[in-house]
TrEMBL record:
It comes from the Bacteria. One of its GO terms (molecular function) is transferase activity. Allows the formation of correctly charged Asn-tRNA(Asn) or Gln-tRNA(Gln) through the transamidation of misacylated Asp-tRNA(Asn) or Glu-tRNA(Gln) in organisms which lack either or both of asparaginyl-tRNA or glutaminyl-tRNA synthetases. The reaction takes place in the presence of glutamine and ATP through an activated phospho-Asp-tRNA(Asn) or phospho-Glu-tRNA(Gln). InterPro entries: Asp/Glu-ADT_sf_sub_c, GatC. The gene is gatC. Keywords: ATP-binding, Ligase, Nucleotide-binding, Protein biosynthesis, Transferase. Pfam families: GatC. It catalyses: L-aspartyl-tRNA(Asn) + L-glutamine + ATP + H2O = L-asparaginyl-tRNA(Asn) + L-glutamate + ADP + phosphate + 2 H(+); L-glutamyl-tRNA(Gln) + L-glutamine + ATP + H2O = L-glutaminyl-tRNA(Gln) + L-glutamate + ADP + phosphate + H(+). Heterotrimer of A, B and C subunits. It comes from Halovulum dunhuangense. The lineage of its organism: Bacteria, Pseudomonadati, Pseudomonadota, Alphaproteobacteria, Rhodobacterales. Belongs to the GatC family. This is Aspartyl/glutamyl-tRNA(Asn/Gln) amidotransferase subunit C. Its EC number is 6.3.5.-.
Length: 95
């Protein structure tokens, strides 16, 4: 797929990237090469290939998904510069 200079300018604008006028043509060529490579990857037969999370086989560590209270409010608030009624107290910023 060929990307022209105007499309490269539009992509840069959408990405909020300032690109010099002289750099638009090389950017368009680079984007075209990336899209061509993606087309090549789409031609690969991946039927029956399981997705991987890593190149080395491993199992993810799991823990029980149990809801706990924690019961650590006092420990957490002990480091707060200002705590009131069991919550962090912060300066008022809106009148």
């Amino acid at each position: 797929m060929a990307i022209d200079k105007e499309t490269a300018r539009r992509v840069a604008h959408l990405a909020r990237i300032e690109v010099e006028e002289a750099a638009l043509e090389p950017l368009a060529r680079d984007l075209s090469r990336i899209l061509d490579f993606m087309d090549e990857l789409n031609e690969v037969d991946v039927e029956g290939v399981e997705p991987m999370t890593s190149v080395t086989p491993m199992t993810l560590k799991r823990r029980a998904d149990a809801v706990t209270d924690g019961d650590r409010q006092a420990d957490i608030l002990r480091n707060a510069p200002d705590a009131r009624e069991g919550f962090f107290a912060v300066p008022k910023v809106v009148e």
